[in-house]
## 1
Amino acid sequence: MTDGQGMHVSDERGLTPADLQSMRFSRASVLRPGYVETEVDRVLSRMAEELARLVAEKAELRDQVRALQAQMEGMEGVVAQQPPSEQALRILSTAQQTADNYVAEAEEFSRQVTGEARAEYEEQIRLARENAGAIIQAAQEAAAKITANATGAPEGGQRSVEELEEQVAYLKAFGQACRVQLRSYLEALITDVETEWGRADPAGLPPGAPRPLAAPAPRGNTASSTTFEANTAAETPPSGEAGNGTVVSAASGAERRP
Amino acid sequence: MDIPAMRANFGKAAATGDEAPLYFYSHLFLSHPETRAMFPVSMAHQRDRLFTALGDVVARVDDLDSLVPILQQLGRDHRKFGTLAAHYPAVGASLLATLEHFDDEWTPELAKDWTEAYTLVSQVMIEAADEAAGQPAWWDAAVVAHERRTIDVAVLRVRPRTPLPYAAGQSVSLETDLRPRLWRYYSPANAPRPDGLLEFHVKARDGGPVSSALVRRVGVGDVLRLGPPMGHLALDPESDRDLLLVAGGMGLAPMKALLDQVARQGPSRRVDLFVGFRTEDHVYDAPELRRLEQEHPWLTVTVAVSHDKNSSLAQGDVGEVVMRHGPWLSREVFVAGPAPMVDDTVSRLLRDGVPRQRLHSEIFAPSRPGPSVDGEVTE
């Protein structure tokens, strides 16, 4: 019943410092001083085993630490982390697509609106230019005719000038007639108003009052009617002569072609 | 590296259309949220571009001679986006995750090959970016003049805060704070000047976010960001051959730059400039062209209109008008403008016998967000 034998108890949990401290060896015999050799040997071999195990374990741990450190270094910049979950990826993808669609729609809308505005603008410019061109052409033709007339133009020119004069005379007469008719209509209207007013409040009616009020209206009307007539007058001759104009340009075009 | 296997694997992702790039960017932004700010709000065009570029790289992965210069250019150009070396592994990880996600037969060998290939690609790009570190990543340039010339064309003059070296005929990309992260390529319309001013001709495209902003909203005092110059239209310094310059619409800008270079540096030579527009209203630079023609006895400018019968200018497509004036067999020829105009003009000149190597052309697409992987600034 030696303590050395008692060590069997702690066999499973390895050799502890306390085990060593509490260890006692038996005397070998009365004749020979010292511990029993076999017991000492057993303890030594167990200690050797234990040390070897610890050394191996330490090496293993050191390797693990190094591996982890290396891994950490490799991850620097690329922060070590879980890969994003499928769900997160789907949510972000959908959000991004929604944003893309909004932007695309806005761009498409802007494209349509500016496209239409530009088309409209260009059409207006084209029309204006065509109008201007027609007016200039008419003016040039009229000018040519007047010069031709003044320098004793051939009969053809003379005749169209006569026609023009005839037309102008007709239009003047027409304008005059319109003016007369309008004036008489307006005067009748004024008379009506005067009588109505006069009936309602004879005292409040200054003798010439309605006239200045009503006068600008007929004047304005006649004015606009004359300009209107003037416009048609200006437009009519070119349209009447349009045949000439196209013939001329077609001829010059034909000249250019060869 | 098993290149056919990598191509097959890439093909699977590419076949999903928009899905794979969508997955890639979502993966990248979730794992590295700081990269999101480097991209525009709408990623639609970006996604197209990414997989087109990757496809080009994959197609050339066994032809390093042509791939490396492209990657170097890409690497240098990416500096203006704020790309740092640290961003490359992040992109690589997301790329690998994407390629794996869309391939049921993903293998560790593929992972290894792609990692290797990507590491190589990013190394080349990072090195090129580092070599360019002496140059600014971008140039801030203040708008010093902004003229609206027609309903949708503006001429801008900008002054970079530090000199921006470029050659006449090249393009630079630019970005405005009004449309963040949308870079577009424009050609300066002048050769480098002692005062550093650059002139840009901008046409507002219907619905074009950047061009409309540049024409209608940017004003004097605003600051644009300019990227490094690129493009291949340039005068051969060795040659003093007479020039034929043909421009369609906004293609006038690089032609004016070449013209300006001849005027500034010589050698003196005959220059014939033909510029085509649809109608006379679109001729946004007429007084300037007249002034140049009066100033330089060696210069002849012909403006043509294709859809304006009332105009007194030369009638017809500009290519046709050019052919009416020939012969051009001895000239060095530069052509810039919209694709149909460039194709038409180039094929007419070739038919006429102008040698291919003396014909230089650049297509101006309506929107030019970036150079192709060939380094051409064509969309």
Note: Helices of chain A lie at 3-6, 17-22, 37-75, 86-150, 155-200, 210-214, 216-256.
## 2
Amino acid sequence: MLFRLKFDSKAVKKPVISMVTLKTSALVNIIRAEVGPRRGELIVEVDDEVADKVENAFRELGVEVCRLEKKVERSEECVHCGACVSICPVEAIVVEEDGRIEFLDKCVLCGNCVNVCPVRALSLPV
Amino acid sequence: MKGDTAERVKTVAEINEKIREGNVCVVTAEEMKKIVEELGAEKAAEEVDVVTTGTFGAMCSTGVFLNFGHSDPPIRMQKVWLNDVEAYTGIAAVDAYLGATQQSEKSQEYGGAHVIQELVRGEEVELRAVSRGTDCYPEKEVRTVITLEDLNFAEMVNPRNAYQRYNAATNSSSRVLRTYMGTLLPNFGNVSFAGCGEISPLINDPDFRTIGVGTRIFLCGAKGFVVGHGTQHCPGYATLMVKGPLKEMKPEFMRAAYMPGYGVTMFVGIGVPIPVLDVEMARALAVRDEDIKTKIIDFGIQRRDRPVIREVTYAELKSGKVEINGEEVRVSPLSSVYLARRVMEELREMILRGDFLLTEPVERLKEGEPMKPLRVATKLVKSVMNKAVTVSPETDVRTAARLMIEKGLNHLPVVDGEGRLVGIITSWDIAKAVASGKTGRVGEIMTRKVITTHPNEAVEVAARKMESYDISALPVVDGSGKVLGIVTSEDLSKLLVR
């Protein structure tokens, strides 16, 4: 399960990832992190079985948690060229055996592929 | 009789007879490779009559000739726009050529390719034409809406399509490059490649025995022809000039595209049927991605002769990862193997239905010659640089200021005991130092991170550096960082008035 975590100046001062890990004993894998002086935004991955527990632990620390259950959306315009494949930071875009380009569930919605698509077939879910 | 099969020759006429009778054996290029592997070339040549090859990739050298018909009163169209994309009109009164990469005057993400696509999809397109008016063509301006139906003539004529193979691209520089080979991430962050490898038409007939002038082909869903070899046709990198009727094309076999940060282009689907005339042809048709070599080129160097990073096969490229400098680098294809397969299958269906007969080339394609470069006088930094007046970090700021006034300079490179660059000071740095009362040593006020050039860099590249870093001079250094001279924006602007 992927979570997008947003936190404000209060929570940003606390080592929230370590606190949650100690409290839940769950392994938290940081996929992307942008931490500034006043707010931070992280994308983390945890095992599905502990997802609820981890989510609650983050919320208790004042972190806004959003489950990333959707992935990049693709229109009929896609020609399966693959320009997006090597741009994906988490290797969520693959070429299938039959030559089709597929998007795996581990998409972190970074939007990099949306910007390189030559036929504008990709978009971030609303 | 021994050798009977090896010498056996099937003619195109015999194959066409089989197509008419409905007992022709047609397979796709991928199937043929397996057949040759399993049965051997001799048996394969006996069994298989036609192999369909295909490609579906971005082909910039694409466009359409259009004839709009005459208005009343008539106009000699001297300038023509279709949805604000200008078409070339230096031909007869109401003829024009619309190139796929021509940009709209309103949006850089829309261009000729999009207009062509909209015409094929049956959509309306705005036509605007202007003229100075003549006795025979008095009208001066026309503005109307047209569809493909309305046009008297619409023929796709592409000067360079279906590359036999293509160089792959990577980027050694420290910034993201937006190129016709897609987005290239910094520090060898990715590789992109074009072409469909072992299923591409020309790679399966390397001696051009059956693909030549007049060969009937599948072009974007229509029956088209090879006009001849394409532009930039050269050994190993053969190309085709092709044509086909726009009115018979199908939208699913073409797609307008915009390479972000680069420009408009068009994905074109091309299929070529190759008759299996003899064993030798069957062997050529067995070519595999493992056998097809190309080069990975560094787009980080902005010169014509970009360095070759390494040789690579299409098999490695298609695996999704290649090694560069000991690191695994991810690969993006830019051509669609998925749609190339659909092209091959569609072409096979057309042949099996008796809808598509093969042709013998009227003339063979020439071998091609190595590409000649365009000779332009490349001005190098060494031809415009001046001797630099240098100072040391220990130099007194006042002494440096006096030097600038005496010599009429605004920049002084700062060097160590061996003449190696350690910083730079400008007249602005001195003004700031004086304003804040810091008039000690040069080392205290100099800029340490210096943007430099080298003697063999093109002046255009040096000028681009100054522009992008918003600076007005570049010290010229050798490989060890020793200062050889300095080039300023004034030196470069002098070039313009020469």
Note: Chain B is about 25% helix and 30% strand.
